[in-house]
Amino acid sequence: MAKSVLIVEDESLLRRTLASALREAGFEAVTAQSAEEAERHLFPVPAVDLVVMDNRLPAEDGVSVLRRLREGQVKCPVILMTAYDQAEVRREAQNLADCYMVKPFDLQRMLSEIERLLGRNGN
Predict the structure, then answer these.
(1) DSSP structural state of residue 105
(2) H-helix or E-strand containing 108?
(3) Prior bond to 77 cis, omega within 30?
(4) Among residues 5, 21, 38, 105, which one has the fewest Cβ atoms lying within 10 Å of its Cβ?
(5) What is the DSSP letter of 29?
(6) For residue 24, what are the CA distances in angstroms to 18, 21, 42, 89?
(7) Residue 78 belongs to what H/E stretch?
(8) Per residue in 61-111, pLDDT tens?
(9) Contacts 24+ apart (CB under 8 A), 39-42
């Protein structure tokens, strides 16, 4: 069974691009446009194997969602991405997320990080 990745991104072009690349790489891609929509896939128990989440989302930031995940002892790996590389966000991401990526990022690097976090070796 394919590993599932939740993409939480409000920019539709990036969300669709990531989903397409993940499907081509053999993953199941699930998408959400907001923190509220993402939480339906994450609480009380994650329905996905990994989360790729933007920090700047409508109504709530990704760090807040990530903080609730970790407070709830959810061990699902999370890649936090942002176009606004701020020291405070970077510090929180280093403590809470499994990977922190600044946009624009190399798509192959993102796929490599996902494979690393899910224990896939690309075979």
Answers:
(1) -
(2) helix 107-117
(3) no
(4) 105
(5) E
(6) 10, 5, 24, 31
(7) strand 78-82
(8) 999 999 999 998 888 999 999 998 889 889 988 999 999 999 999 999 999
(9) 39/65, 41/6, 42/6, 42/69, 42/74, 42/76
Name which of 107, 9, 4 is nearest 54 in CA terms: 9
Tokens of 56: 């700047």
Fold classification of 4-117 (topology level): Rossmann fold (3.40.50)
Q: Which pair of tokens denotes residue 69?
A: 């995940």
Distance CA 55, CA 115 (A): 21
41: Cα separation from own chain's centroid: 12
Domain boundaries, the chain: 4-117
The amino acid occupying position 18 is L
Q: How far apart are CA 81 and CA 8, in angstroms?
A: 10
